[in-house]
Amino acid sequence: MKQVHVIGAGLAGLSAALSLSAAGWAVTVHEAGPAAGGRCRSFFDQELGLRIDNGNHIMLSGNHAVQAYIAEIGAQDAFQAGKTALFPFMDVGTEERWVVRPNAGRFPWWIFSNSRRVPDTRLSDYLDMARIARIKDNRPVADSMRRGRLYWRLLEPFAIAALNTSSQEGLARLLGAVMKETLLRGGKACIPLLPKEGLSEAMIDPAIATLQARGAVVRFNSRIAELTVESGVVVALRGPDGSIPIESGDAVVLAAPARVAADLLPKLIAPDAFEAILNIHFRYDAEPVGPLKEAGFIGLTSATAEWVFVKPGHVSVTISAANAMVDDPARSIAMDVWPNVVDALGLPPEAKDAMPPFRVVKEKRATFAATARQEQRRPKAKTALAANLALAGDWTDTGLPATIEGAIRSGRTAADVILSL
Ligand SMILES: Cc1cc2nc3c(=O)[nH]c(=O)nc-3n(C[C@H](O)[C@H](O)[C@H](O)COP(=O)(O)OP(=O)(O)OC[C@H]3O[C@@H](n4cnc5c(N)ncnc54)[C@H](O)[C@@H]3O)c2cc1C
């Protein structure tokens, strides 16, 4: 039986491992940390006394690789059912609230409906926005359409979440790639996929169980510190217990983050500029009403907080493209954000003076910066650096920004490279 070693048990590594185990390969996954999931994981926070996710993740029903992955690991029941495409927003400056509700079918009649589109927007703006999917050059999101109300109240919040990069720098064509598979396919493709419990319960633990049921071995605390390449072939890995020989005919998938991959393969050109994401978790039992209750989250404009999620026992805030804030003290970040949460939840103003216990999770290198320069540095899964090696990760050349959909697809692509050897 052919053997493949997968380095990294994030979603890219897990998806490669799933494909290769299904194809009959003997799979060993080496994960540096004590648990799988990488940048998409849940953990118990002692101080809050709660299990939380490292960060809120939005996936949409149009993410077809995500859907196939969830089906393969049998985790459909781990997601909330019956949600519709519904995106509540509030402008914290003016206290205006609106709800974007794309209709299910492909013909976008929602853009004609005052109760479904962004208030006070023009039809021509929606047509302009749809044209982003055709952009092929390097223009940033900020130059992709007229900067009117539709831009500020829908496109920009969506772009910052999808690209994790400011709209002055974030590549419009990467956003266009996401829009083509979601917003432009109608509401059916825009239903948020939200885990019932945590990310690990929904996306990671069932994948590990599926792999183990197929006989794959998943080694935790197993950091790979070196790849030995001789005559264009990986011949050994160095793990914590010493050298692991790679026999002739065997293969390796390198699914570690970009920085680690570049350390292991010094000749690799990979993204080298990153953007932070902050998640601020407040221990607070919210009782949302209206669209916030229905959706489970709300987008904010004119605020420090960008998205507020209501979860069991806590409320959780996401701030993307957060390099400028990431080194601020946790308390000052939480104090900036809590008043936004009070507004979003419609709590009485005096609640602003009663900030509950909080945890700030700082993911300093949450994703590569989705700029033209970084896009150029994304390598293909198949690499000239070694014949029996494939690369995977959200930072490889998937055509998508650094997202779960991209990570899962990258793993499938890497598996196809190995299967074609
Ligand atoms: C806070 C936050 C919010 C996000 N929000 C969203 C969102 O809303 N929607 C969305 O689609 N995406 C979102 N993302 C992006 C998404 O989480 C990532 O794109 C995805 O998880 C990347 O998966 P990956 O497998 O490519 O990398 P990783 O998850 O980084 O996995 C790499 C794995 O390799 C392991 N590793 C590292 N070095 C070694 C080594 N030497 N040997 C062995 N193992 C090693 C790591 O421990 C890790 O487990 C978010 C990310 C963050 C951080």
> Beta fraction of the residues?
15-25%
Q: How are the strands of the largest sheet arranged?
A: 7-6-15-16-17-14-18
- What is the SS-derived class? alpha/beta
Task: Write down the overall mean pLDDT.
Answer: 97
Bound molecules: flavin-adenine dinucleotide
Record field, number of beta strands: 19
State the domain count. 3
- Percent helix, as a range, is 25-40%
Within CATH, the superfamily of the largest domain carries the name FAD/NAD(P)-binding domain
By CATH, the topology of the largest domain is FAD/NAD(P)-binding domain
Choose one word for the global shape. Answer: globular
Task: Provide a descriptive summary of the structure in words.
It is a single chain. It contains eleven helices and 19 strands. With 421 residues, the chain is of the alpha/beta class. The chain has three domains: 3-43 and 199-272 and 370-419, 3-Layer(bba) Sandwich (FAD/NAD(P)-binding domain); 44-81 and 273-368, Alpha-Beta Complex (Polyamine Oxidase, Chain A, domain 2), CATH 3.90.660.10; 106-111 and 118-187, no CATH class. The strands form five sheets. A seven-stranded mixed β-sheet has the order 7-6-15-16-17-14-18, sandwiched between helices. A five-stranded parallel β-sheet has the order 9-2-1-13-19. A three-stranded antiparallel β-sheet has the order 10-11-12, with no helix packed on it. The two termini are 14 Å apart. The relative contact order is 0.20.
